[in-house]
ABC transporter ATP-binding protein
Amino acid sequence: MTISTLPDTQKSIALLAVSKSFAAQKVLENISLTIQRGEIVALLGASGGGKSTLLNIMSGLLPADSGEILLQGVPSEKFQHWQRVAYLFQEDRLLPWRTVEQNVHFGLENSGLDAKTRRQRVAEALELVGLAEFIRHWPHQLSGGMRSRVALARSLVVQPEILLMDEPFSRLDPQTRSAMHDELLRIQHLTGMTVVLVTHDVEEAVVLADRVLILKPHPGRLHNETPLDLPRPRIATHPAVNEQIRLLRLEV
């Protein structure tokens, strides 16, 4: 699916000929892609492919050197990122001196919303991730999976249209990671968010994504894209899922 064939009303993210360098090193070269509204897309590839840099450009944290970036049909420089784009990092980045409730509230502190609306948003976000009973807990009292849920709630509290995720589950044990995969899919289904996930894990990409974009390094360029027309839930040991994992590992 290319930028030219997808109507503007269906585009969530569109990049056209985007390039980026740091000093003399080119990190991204001529990246063009389109992500549909409500789609889950995984950015997959080896280190040095520019996946995180591409995510930072989508988020507005980093400008591109050249090319065009449209978010929901609006040029990136005119897009209200803080209202409509949330970013979930590899580390949960919880503030240890704040409770669960206060950590989630942090995402709204510069929103301009009144106190009652902020409290309601926080309560809804914690309910959504299943942590309503833990609002008074401190980060050190939580398991790794619960901390990841708090970080997810902090992202969801702004009610984003686009959720960008930079390997947010990579530090979790396999069982907890699987539970977070289920949680993400459940929440995405409820909210209809567009999700862009950076990962090195082929299995994670196949389990979660509607489409996988493979980036090759030095400089980062779009090598291949693979639509995943597989029913959910996807279990890695299922023959069709396992075969897709095998094929993608040959491409990465």
Remarks:
- Residues 1-7 have pLDDT under 50 and may be disordered.
- The chain has one domain: 8-93+161-251.
- Residues 174-191 form the longest helix (18 residues).
